[in-house]
Amino acid sequence: MTRVKRGTIANKRRKTILKAAKGFKWSRKNKYRAAKEGIYHAWKNAFIGRKQKKRNMRRLWNIKINAGVRMNSNNEMNYSKFINGLKKTNIELDRKVLAQLAENHPEVFKKILETVK
């Protein structure tokens, strides 16, 4: 009977984990058990980071809109009053677009602010 060599799937699994751990410090880059633990933590944190990025961008847009509103209205109006005014006048621009307008096109943003007042 011919000899059967085994473990190709297990070797492939180990190789992919070690490939994903490339660039890790110390023994995490070349020892399977440590690499597996590091990879799972890294993937968990990457998932969390993708959610946090969305949160942080929305906070940044709010800050930019608030700065644009306060600059153009001489501190008469703030962010919350501006957003409330947008909803009452049925202007359906999202915060990302409003932040870009406040930063890059202040004259257009000023016109929007005048309609909200």
Describe the protein in words.
- With 117 residues, the protein is mainly α.
- It has a single domain, classed as Ribosomal protein L20, C-terminal domain (c-terminal domain of poly(a) binding protein, Orthogonal Bundle).
- 73% of the residues lie in helices and 0% in strands.
- It has 5 helices and no strands.
- Helix 1 runs parallel beside helix 2, helix 2 crosses helix 4 and helix 4 crosses helix 5.
- It is rod-shaped.
- It starts with 7 loop residues before the first helix and ends with a helix.
Features:
mainly alpha, single chain, 117 residues, c-terminal domain of poly(a) binding protein
Structural class: mainly alpha
Are there runs of 5+ residues with pLDDT below 50, and where?
none
In terms of DSSP E residues, the strand content is under 5%
Number of H/I helices: 5
Helix content percent band: over 70%
Q: Termini separation (Å)?
A: 89 Å
Molecular shape: rod-shaped
CATH architect. name: Orthogonal Bundle
CATH topology value: c-terminal domain of poly(a) binding protein
Query: What is the number of domains?
Result: 1
**CA-based gyration radius:** 26 Å
Q: What is the name of the CATH superfamily?
A: Ribosomal protein L20, C-terminal domain
CATH class: Mainly Alpha
How many E-type strands? Answer: 0
Q: Main β-sheet, in a few words?
A: none
Order of helices and strands: HHHHH
Q: State mean pLDDT (0 to 100 scale).
A: 94
